[in-house]
Design brief:
five-stranded antiparallel β-sheet; about 140 residues; globular; mainly beta; three-stranded antiparallel β-sheet
């Protein structure tokens, strides 16, 4: 499987890199392979992200990892005009969005390779991955 990689921003120095925990390790391993993984509860069928030990709906501990289609729509977004740190200054302005994935869970993702003024609520996006060192971070790219 080939990884659909986003074009890397010009500078990654100083940007934080997530660290895997016991709960999140399968998610980050999937990202490294170009797969977006999420959890589904065997007891109630709830799809959830971020990874947890228990179902956020029924508290069952029987959670399976599933592969997402990596397709979704923008639920809401904001255009970041002020960088949270020096490392993000070259990226400003950038878009941070809540994306509803087809499988029924929501993620917060940067929307890349688009002009902020061209986005709209309900717009289709696809998850792609940005390399940051050895870590692959999910991002969203508009489709169509």
């Amino acid at each position: 499987m080939t990884v659909d990689k986003a074009m890397p921003p010009p500078e990654h120095a100083g940007k934080p890199v997530p660290r895997a925990t016991a709960e999140t390790a399968p998610f980050w391993e999937g990202c490294r392979r170009g797969e977006l993984l999420f959890q589904r509860c065997r007891a109630c069928g709830h799809a959830q992200f971020y990874p947890r030990v228990l179902c956020a709906v029924c508290s069952a501990a029987e959670l399976d990892w599933e592969r997402s289609s990596m397709r979704g729509t923008i639920h809401s977004y904001t255009v970041v005009q002020r960088a949270p740190s020096e490392a993000f200054k070259p990226d400003v302005p950038y878009v941070l969005a809540l994306v509803d994935l087809q499988e029924g869970f929501r993620m917060m993702l940067n929307v890349i390779e688009t002009e902020p003024d061209s986005l709209r609520i309900g717009q289709a996006v696809r998850v792609v991955f940005e390399a940051r060192g050895e870590t692959m971070l999910p991002q969203a790219r508009p489709t169509g």
